[in-house]
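Note to self: keep these together.
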Amino acid sequence: MSHSVQQSSESAPRARRKPQERSAQTRRKLLDAAIGLLHEQGFSRLTVNDVAHRAGLTAGAVQYHFRSSRDLIHGVINAVFPILRVSLDQIAKPEQPLPARIGRLVDLYWELYRRPEYLVFWEIVFGARDKADVRAFLHSLVVKNMQGASADLARAFSDVPLRPQAAMKLWTFISSQLRGLALLSIFKDKNIKADLAILKNSAYRVFVELTEQSI
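Structure:
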């Protein structure tokens, strides 16, 4: 009896994926291939054929999902950009000392900035300098990200309180420093841990100055 049940289970046909699911999976595979190539080889060396080969698909599959190389780049940007936002729920805890909360804030953003996808984002920024439509698209996303990040910070430190304008200045200070560290990480800089400690202390001093100015 048990043997017949097992045999029946093994012979049962697998549920077929819907065409939309197959298409979405193929598109995601192509985007992952493009992201990997951008990280390893750079923007200037990205080709449709390489993306297809990396994904184990044909060049026709790339052209089916992305009408042009610019459509592919737009797709990569849309795939990468959501990682540039981070949840700050962990630091919205008034019972914790402010220096510890600022330190955790830096750690959370560093976890984001050190990811390969972040470097891919900047690879596109530098590589698309002569592509006005890509630059405009990137600019619109960056503005939204800045506004969202400063609003998140203001909410996370609403007990202080940290005003929106001050939150924007704090985020700009921290993010600009972390961008530099992210680029240094390409060269395996061994001082990054010490640099992060310095940044945490500096960010706390900036935070205190900004909140005192708001009083």
